[in-house]
C-alpha cells in the first residue's frame, strides 16, 4: 500500500476535478465547440499533472508494488500530453474570439508530435525526455501560449471597448496559465519539484471553479434583471460575437439611420434581447455604443493628414452622424474638447 501526504492528496483531487470539469463541460452545452475544446484541454492537462503525482508517489515510497516498466510507461504517456496542451490552448482562444469558428482538418498537423509520442510511449527511454523532449515540450507550450496572447490582444484591440465578460475570462485564463508556465520553467522547476506544480495546478482549477460559479451567478443576475428573458449565457455569447461582427467588419455605426430595431432585424433577434446584451456586456445603451464607435471613427479621420482639408461637417457625416450639432455635442462629451481643437492637437 503506497503512502500519500496531504499535498499529494490535494494535487490528486485537483487532477480528478479537472477530468470531472471536462465531462461536465462536454455535455453542458452540446454543439458548443469552445466548451468541447476546453474540455479536451482540461483532460490533457489533468493527465499531464497526474504524471507528476505518479512520480512523487514513487519518491514517497520507493518500494511501492509497481514494475519499473509500467511506471515508466505511465510517465511517458503523461509527458507526451504536454505536446497537446499548446495547440488546444490556441484553438480555444480562436473558438472564443472568431465569429463562426469551425475546426479545420489542417489543425490536426499541430497535434502530430503528440500523436507520435503517445503511440511510441512504450519504447521511449528516459534520456530521450531528459536530454531533448522535455525542453522541446516546454518551448512548444510557450510558443502556443504567446500565440494565444496575440489572439487575445488582437481580439481586444478590434473590439475598441473595455473588455467585459468574455474578455475577462480569457484574460484570467492567460494569467493562470502564465503562472503555471513560470513554475514549470526549467529555472524554477527544481525549486517547486514534481508536487509543487501539481498543487499549483489544483489551485488553478479551484480558481476556475470560482470563476465558473461567478459566471452562473451572473446568469442568475441577468435573469433577475430581465425577468422572463430567454437570453441564456450561451445565446448572449453568440449574439455578442454577431454584434462585434456587425461593428468591426460591417461597420454598422456608419449608417446614420441605424437604430436598435434595424440592427436587431439584421441580426434576426428581438430588440429586447439585443438591448439586454448591449447593456450587460458593454454597460452602454445602444445609442451610446453607436456613438462611441462613431467618435472613434471621427478621431481617426481628424488625425489623418489626407483628410486635413475636409470640413468638420464632412468628418461628422463620414463617421455616421446626421447632425453637425449632435456630432459636436457628443464629441466634446467623449473626448473632452471640440473636434476642431482635437484636430489641431493631433496635427502638431
Description:
With 348 residues, the protein is mostly helical. It has two domains: 6-224, Rhodopsin 7-helix transmembrane proteins (Rhopdopsin 7-helix transmembrane proteins); 233-346, Arc Repressor Mutant, subunit A (Orthogonal Bundle), CATH 1.10.10.60. 75% of the residues lie in helices and 0% in strands. Helix 1 (6-28) crosses helix 8 and helix 10 (260-267) crosses helix 11 (271-282). It is elongated, with a radius of gyration of 26 Å. The model has no long low-confidence stretch (mean pLDDT 79).
Provide a concise account of the structure shown.
The protein is mostly helical. Helices cover 75% and strands 0% of the residues.
Mean pLDDT: 79
Computed Rg: 26 Å
Residue ranges: pLDDT <50 for 5 or more in a row? none
Query: Helical segment tally?
Result: 15
User: Shape, please?
Assistant: elongated
Q: Which percent range fits the helix content?
A: over 70%
Features:
348 residues, mainly alpha, Rhopdopsin 7-helix transmembrane proteins, Arc Repressor Mutant, subunit A, 2 domains, 15 helices, 0% strand
Topology (SSEs and partners):
Blueprint: H1 6-28, H2 33-60, H3 68-80, H4 82-97, H5 112-119, H6 126-159, H7 165-183, H8 186-225, H9 233-248, H10 260-267, H11 271-282, H12 286-302, H13 312-318, H14 324-335, H15 339-346
Helix pairs in contact: 1-2, 1-8, 2-3, 2-4, 2-8, 3-6, 4-6, 6-7, 7-8, 10-11, 12-13
